[in-house]
Amino acid sequence: MPSAITTTSIFGGKDIARPRGGELTDSGSLEKYSYNDLTPVIGREFENIQIRDLLTAGDQVFKDLAYTISSRGVVFLRNQDVTPTEMKDFMLRLTFAAGSPESSGLHVHPLTEEGSKLGDQISVISSEKQKNGGGLTHMLSDVSRFASNAWHSDITFEPVPSDYAMLKIHTLPPTGGDTLWASGYEIYDRLSPPIRELLKGLTATHDAKFFLDEAKNLGNPLRECERGSPLNKGAELTAVHPVIRTNPATGWNSVYVNKGFTKRINGVTKDESDVLLNYLFNLVTQNHDAQVRFRWKKNDLAIWDNRSTWHCATYDYSDPRAGDRVCSLGEAPYLDLEQGKSRKEDLGL
Ligand SMILES: O=C(O)CCC(=O)C(=O)O
Ligand SMILES: [Fe+2]
């Protein structure tokens, strides 16, 4: 299979899951929509875009949108009239336009019930379901008073994890349930050159074995089938990825370990791994100037790049909160040792 990336400067990745194209650029097709950048480093809210209307647009619009999401980290669209099926169609076009490998489709979460009403590729995010010991947010099942324990990027336990994710929240408590995102590019940019060099040679193990217990609590068998890529299957729920990852859409490097799933930096002692991971997690959770916090209204929708951001739900409410999420799969994570850039330097900041 032809691959856009054939140089030896690539650390990590897998031959059947390399990106099809190179970096994206913005041709300006979204210029007619007004927007607000919510912070200098992360988040853009568009006005007057309906996902449903964009479904009939050409590929260039999807490319421009992919570039916008990948460069701003997360994009917010208010009050969307869109069905779960349209969300899936949209995400397939987005990931394709962005250059994801042919072997990558939409993810099937290992906890998604077989024959579920909305289909295999929709994860139902539901506070009520979570009360039964299920859902995607195990983190608070083990007693902790640190809300920051819930920071993660989606499904990094898969050998081929997510490029983009779309979440629409349709049921909301009167207040609470905000979601926060943080920029992986910005955290990479806060590392000194010697620490960057150290981390560029390292991989980390990501593990979601706790889903085996959650599947039992829910009474559903774990989905061991192909979960959107031939490389994502079985009950192992473990993957090894580079600690620093290049995003093919922007060419920018990002830190790629997360509190939810990353257990161990490989090839160093356990103590060194703990120190390094804790330092990186603290950079994410203790820098509110690398984060954006979104206050949802009914039917608002977010699309983010899981390769270069983390997110964290807020469990500060008691009334029901629910929505639908679709995750597309990108490339197997890699670091481009020659071409990978700092966001700040590339933007001349
Ligand atoms: O409920 C939320 O705000 C976020 C849930 C989540 O982690 C996700 O949709 O990937
Ligand atoms: Fe998530």
Automatic annotation (TrEMBL):
Question: What Pfam families has UniProt attached to this entry?
Answer: TauD (PF02668)
Signal peptide bounds: none
Q: Does the keyword Flavoprotein apply?
A: no
Q: What are the names of the required cofactors?
A: Fe(2+)
Q: Does the keyword Acyltransferase apply?
A: no
Q: Which Gene3D superfamilies match?
A: Clavaminate synthase-like (3.60.130.10)
InterPro entries attached to this UniProt entry? AtsK-like, TauD-like_sf, TauD/TfdA-like
Name of the featured protein: TauD/TfdA-like domain-containing protein
Per the UniProt entry, what species is this protein from, by scientific name? Podospora fimiseda
